[in-house]
Amino acid sequence: GAVVSQHPSRVICKSGTSVKIECRSLDFQATTMFWYRQFPKKSLMLMATSNEGSKATYEQGVEKDKFLINHASLTLSTLTVTSAHPEDSSFYICSARFDSEQFFGPGTRLTVL
Amino acid sequence: DQQVKQNSPSLSVQEGRISILNCDYTNSMFDYFLWYKKYPAEGPTFLISISSIKDKNEDGRFTVFLNKSAKHLSLHIVPSQPGDSAVYFCAASGGANNLFFGTGTRLTVIP
């Protein structure tokens, strides 16, 4: 089956620093990748849709200057949380679209101190 | 505004019995529905899906039922096994890329 990886799986950073999270499709090419955020005991909320070679489409309420998304190739999308603050602490999950289905990565736990 | 709702945050079932997880949606444009299983600190894994042209889809121990008039779907797991213990999310889409997720139901199967 289609496999999606994320790196790192867990990151702890100081407030004010930037953190980059990578999402890779390992055995398929994905023109579209998605970034989700999950708060404790809450649903997964779509943050943005990442399209290879073009700008990401952000959902309402998501700051595009804070959550920078780059879909540099058909197998890699990155999410950079800039100037992270404690309220950005969350579980970030990416998914990649393949054959009309979405396959999810294992997620990245971000903790901002 | 939560377009997909799972009103039961948790469910406990004895091993061997049936688990029924429910999901309601509000957007009549949704035409494809999915169930995902999620373990803590992991991404969701796809379980089963159903198109709006069907009212039932079965895969092994898992069956999804769709009632379009009631905007309701349910996931039946029978027989339930301890390894089924996880959080289950239902999700819906309406032709666009977006998946709208419910808030999840934590299923505990008691041995």
Main features:
heterodimer; A: 113 residues; 7-stranded mixed sheet; 4-stranded antiparallel sheet; globular; B: mainly beta; 6-stranded mixed sheet; 0% helix
Largest two-chain interface: A-B, 25 and 19 residues
Q: How are helices and strands ordered from N to C of chain B?
A: EEEEEEEEEEE
What distance lies between the first and last C-alpha atoms of chain B, to the nearest angstrom?
A: 37 Å
Low-confidence segments of chain B: none
pLDDT < 50 stretches of chain A: none
| Total helical elements of chain B | 0
User: What's the gyration radius of chain A in Å?
Assistant: 13 Å
Instruction: State the end-to-end CA separation of chain A.
Output: 37 Å
Overall pLDDT score of chain B: 92
Give the overall shape of chain B. Answer: globular
Largest sheet of chain B: 6 strands, mixed
Order of helices and strands of chain A: EEEEEEEEEEE
Multimeric organization: heterodimer
Beta-strand share of residues of chain A = over 45%
Radius of gyration of chain B over all CA atoms, rounded? 13 Å
Shape of chain A: globular
In which range does the helix fraction of chain B lie?
Answer: under 10%
Mean pLDDT of chain A: 90
